[in-house]
Design goal:
MetI-like fold; mainly alpha; single chain; about 0% strand
Length: about 280
């Protein structure tokens, strides 16, 4: 018997999608208006085809006092920062979870619980000590200082540990009989088994790295290292009249990369979330 569609569930999902999509649509339509029209409050929900050039013009717009630092440059900085943070978090978390799950060494569980305790400390609590450490290593105003404090993740370590603990003991014994060393076992067996979780974590961590605002605001005064989030804010806080059409066009550009990553890896992302407990 064919099941009747659940109209209430579909209606709620459609309403939620509309609520999320409406601000994005307003930004898209606003990007096609003129700055003067937006400042007068004449914002239409229908985009103007003649104003689509704003999406090209904003890439060359200078959102920083430093010469040559454009919105396009900041998009590249954000992409590089998000990629390094995501890959760094995955690498460090997978290796730390591998050590905790498969090696027996003194204070192993104490180390694990110390990692988990960092989940109780919000970024705002840790940010001043982090800045002091980066300053002592002379890493302020550098790409290393921008990304290094953000490449450790207690959540990812916990997820990898749970996946590794579910690996059958027979597989570990088979690897030992074949003469596989620890790193070969990690690279050839554990990582392929964890592929869905890797994909899900990459999507989450890439979006996390892309949306960083507070740490770059403190760690960077060099305009050439500003991510796109800072660039958009500085377009608004200038002493001149705010070019709202370019601000909205830059906002749409800032949305596209994380959305593209989610869409491209959607299948692996869902699979990683649904198989996390298996």
């Amino acid at each position: 018997m064919k099941r009747r569609p659940d109209y209430l569930a579909h209606g709620v999902l459609g309403l939620g999608a509309a609520l999320f999509a409406l601000p994005v649509w307003v930004a898209f339509a606003g990007a096609t208006e003129t700055a003067g029209a937006i400042n007068r409050g004449d914002l239409s929900l229908l985009p103007r085809l003649a104003g689509l050039r704003s999406f090209i013009d904003v890439l060359g717009y200078g959102a920083s006092a430093d010469a040559g630092v454009t919105i396009g440059h900041m998009l590249l900085v954000s992409f590089a920062m998000a990629l390094v943070i995501a890959l760094g978090k995955i690498a460090i978390s997978a290796l730390s979870a591998f050590a905790i799950a498969f090696f027996r060494f003194p204070f192993r569980m104490i180390a694990f619980w110390a990692i988990l305790l960092t989940l109780m400390l919000p970024v705002e609590v840790r940010i001043i000590p982090t800045y002091a450490v980066m300053s002592q290593f002379h890493l302020i105003n550098s790409f290393t200082g921008l990304t290094m404090p953000l490449i450790a993740s207690a959540t990812a370590t916990l997820l990898f540990r749970q996946v590794f603990l579910a690996v059958p003991d027979e597989l570990v014994e088979a690897a030992r009989l074949d003469g596989a060393g620890p790193m070969r076992f990690f690279l050839d067996m554990l990582l392929p088994v964890s592929a869905p979780n890797l994909a899900a974590l990459f999507v989450i961590l890439f979006v996390y790295g892309w949306n960083q605002y507070l740490w770059p605001l403190l760690a960077v005064t060099n305009g050439r290292l500003n991510p796109i989030v800072l660039g958009i804010v500085r377009m608004i806080t200038t002493d001149q009249i705010t070019p709202w059409n370019l601000v909205m066009a830059g906002t749409i550009w800032a949305i596209l990369p994380p959305v593209a990553v989610v869409l491209l890896m959607q299948r692996w992302f869902v699979r990683g979330l649904t198989e996390a407990d298996k």
